[in-house]
Design a protein that fits this description.
By secondary structure, this protein is of the alpha+beta class. The protein has helices at about 1-25, 155-160, 285-295, 295-305, and strands spanning about 45-50, 55-70, 75-80, 95-105, 110-115, 130-135, 150, 170-175, 190-195, 200-205, 205-210, 210-215, 225-230, 245-260, 275-285, 315. The chain has four helices and 16 strands. The termini are far apart.
Length: about 325
């Protein structure tokens, strides 16, 4: 009799256990860790400037992108990408030089001076797009680096196809000014989610700009960092799809929204301002970078280079 009662109790419990297990499988987003390909960190370099004392201080992040040559698709043009404001002083003027910190093959880092006067710096026709692109390719025999293939840049078509929306996972890799590595570059990786996507322009520093907003904290040094969508196969509720997660370049980190909140002290008349990170970061969409890379200016430069001697073309150590 007791065994019969136990069997009936088990029959009632089993369906619930099955449903619970199925829910965990379907909503695997809560279980799946965001593990990024290690080579992505090798696409990033750090950008330094010289202060008034002549000391080299960290200022932002850059990364390398490759575009296939039209006639020889196995070969690639290289470009250094960063935010425009990383290359400018507080008055909006270009620095005379910046210093690119790259890892070397011997497991150390080196600062390379990049003179900006007379340098080819390509930007978007829309001045509010905070992206700068510089044709560049480090010495492969000396430096340890990878490039992001242009095929990984998010396009509007892929955006619609993948149904990217608020809540989707993102991560970015960049410079952490408090610790960037003593002997070599050590990027920091931060994770978050899409907080806002809109067809409308967003006010940034008094200018209406095309941006994604992310729920993640960005800080000084992250500007210019590559930001990625991390699309796992269980991201749509109710669907269980087998397969590897997809990674696309979402865009270029522009900065963080800050809230200036007053902190009042009853016992004094002082009202200091505490500047706090709102936890919302702004990203320039990758399709804006794509419009620069495949715009008339750089496309014509690549065609002329191919017609001459293969200038600025090399086999790409892609991610």
């Amino acid at each position: 009799m007791n065994s019969e009662n136990e069997w009936r109790k088990l029959q009632r419990i089993l369906p619930r256990c099955f449903i619970l297990a199925l829910c965990f499988l379907i909503d695997g987003r809560n279980l799946e860790a965001t593990i990024i390909p290690p080579d992505i960190k090798n696409t990033v370099c750090f950008i330094f400037i010289a202060n008034a004392k002549g000391e080299k201080v960290p200022n932002g992040t850059g990364f390398l992108v490759g575009v296939k040559a039209e006639k020889e698709p196995e070969r690639t043009f290289g470009y250094l990408v960063t935010a425009k404001h990383v290359l400018k002083d507080e008055n909006g003027n270009l620095y005379s030089s910046v210093f690119i910190r790259l890892n070397k093959k011997d497991n150390t880092a080196e600062l390379i001076e990049l003179k900006l006067a007379g340098q080819k710096i390509c930007t978007h026709s829309d001045d509010t797009v905070d992206i700068a692109v510089i044709p560049a390719w480090p010495d492969e025999a000396r430096y340890d680096f990878k490039v992001i293939p242009s095929e990984l840049l998010m396009t509007k078509e892929i955006f619609d196809k993948e149904k990217i929306t608020e809540g989707d996972e993102v991560f970015f890799v960049g410079l952490f000014t408090n610790y960037f590595g003593e002997q070599k570059n050590v990027p920091v990786t931060r994770f978050g989610r899409v907080a806002m996507i809109t067809d409308e322009k967003i006010n940034w520093d008094g200018k209406m700009t095309d941006l994604y907003l992310l729920e993640t904290q960005s800080f000084g040094g992250n500007s210019g960092a590559p930001v990625f969508f991390y699309l796992n196969q269980t991201r749509q509720p109710g669907l269980l799809i087998l397969g590897a997660s997809k990674i696309f370049l979402a865009g270029v980190m522009q900065g963080t929204f800050l809230d200036a909140e007053k902190v009042r002290f009853v016992q004094t008349q002082n009202v200091p301002i505490s500047v706090q990170n709102a936890g919302i970061a702004a990203v320039v969409p990758a399709y804006k970078l794509r419009e620069i890379l495949f715009g008339d200016e750089l496309t014509e430069m690549r065609r002329k280079a191919e017609a001459r001697t293969g200038e600025n073309i090399t086999v790409s150590p892609k991610v």
